[in-house]
Amino acid sequence: MVKLNDNYLKLPGSYLFSEIAKRVSAFTEANPDKKVIKLGIGDVTLPLTKSVIEAMHKAVDEMGAAATFRGYGPEQGYEFLRKAIAENDYCARGADIAPDEIFVSDGAKSDTGNIGDIFSVDNKVAVCDPVYPVYVDTNAMVGRAGDFNAETGMWNNLIYMPCLEENGFLPELPKERADIIYLCFPNNPSGVAMKRDELKKWVDYANENKSIILYDGAYEAYISEEDVPHTIYEIEGAKTCAIEFKSFSKNAGFTGTRCGYTVIPKELKVNGVEVRSLWNRRHTTKFNGTPYVTQRAAEAVYSPEGKEEVKGLIKYYMENAKIISDGLKKAGFTVYGGVNSPYIWLKVPQGMTSWEFFDYLLEKVNVVGTPGSGFGPSGEGYFRLTAFGSRDNTLEAIDRIVKTFEQ
Ligand code: MLT
């Protein structure tokens, strides 16, 4: 008889955002007259920008003419995009990354979920708590996370690094040695950023312990403060211990278009083996490249016009973040994030769990957010709202919340 991967059977329920979607659709089916405003999953609402659309149209025309048609492209991404990424996201920031250290993909979710393929299941993995659930679930799927304890909401083979109000929602260096450390800054879900000197401690830890940091920088475009690094490679020593993941989803609105990339410097080696060569082997075996049209769209993000347009998108969402933060404070909530990130992390009213607050907000206020406990046990008592909604919906949602909770 066929044997299944039993690790999947250990996974609790459904993926966080699928569970939320399920609850929301049950509510809307039962209450078709209610206007539900979704500020749950971090999905953008503004359309693609002019430069991006023009680049896509042009690329589509190329695909429709025999002389310019393209079939399979390089699995790692076209040189034009890898060069644009290297120049703009790295060299311009003083981080010397070469195009052949960049692997273009269909997004950071896939890459952060797949990167575990190149590491042994015996590695000890450390995650922030709360955390983007993809890191935990994908380690659980291969058995690296061990067994799930429904009472604690924890996997017995993971190292959890609590990110709480008392430590400013920043993880502390693990007491137990970690081989692989997932960091995401600006953080999803708490929205807090990590400053340069703080990140340096992690890079030093990783180099001293021969660990690897998996650094998710998907929200980098939202950084507004000077002392927050835009890439881990701004930190001395990072090239020998870090892999970085980036995405065009949150800066340029590519959540539906799908494009991201992973950086693995040549200096990153384990026992003399370039980690990059293993990822290259995996990528070329399991992935046939991001569509040409999409890569041309991503390239346009780096044009002078594209850069200005991205600034406009970020400004719009950060204004939403301020509307949310200010409104929640007015309604009496304690609020974090929203300064270097499009996420607002609020404390739920006393006496309620995160899921109880989720249900209350859905049923009474018709607003959807994400319960903190869905990101891990230390997220209990918190709730995430995204600034990616439309302006009108954001204003209306906050107005409803203020009216409901203001004393
Ligand atoms: C989130 O809401 O946490 C993100 O949108 C999820 C993602 O980027 O996959």
How does the SSE layout of this entry go?
Elements (H helix, E strand, L loop, with lengths): L6 H4 L5 H15 L6 E2 L11 H14 L15 H12 L11 E4 L2 H7 L10 E5 L3 H9 L6 E2 L4 E2 L2 E5 L17 E5 L11 H14 L2 E5 L25 E6 L1 H4 L7 E4 L5 E2 L2 E2 H12 L5 H9 L3 H27 L4 E3 L5 E5 L6 H12 L1 E2 L1 E2 L10 E5 L4 H15 L2
Parallel strand pairs: 1-15, 3-6, 3-7, 7-8, 8-9
Antiparallel strand pairs: 2-10, 4-5, 9-10, 11-12, 13-14, 14-17, 16-17
Helix pairs in contact: 3-10, 4-10, 5-6, 11-13
Bound molecules: D-malate.
| Largest sheet geometry | 7 strands, mixed
* Percentage of residues in helical conformation: 25-40%
Structural class, by secondary structure, is alpha/beta
Bound ligands: D-malate
Q: Care to count the β-strands?
A: 17
Average pLDDT figure:
97
Radius of gyration: 21 Å
Task: Note poorly predicted spans.
Answer: none
- How widely separated are the two ends? 62 Å
Q: What letter string, H or E per element, gives the SSE order?
A: HHEHHEHEHEEEEHEEHEEEHHHEEHEEEH
Shape: globular
Beta strand %: 5-15%
Q: Number of helical segments?
A: 13
Main β-sheet, spatial strand arrangement: 2-10-9-8-7-3-6
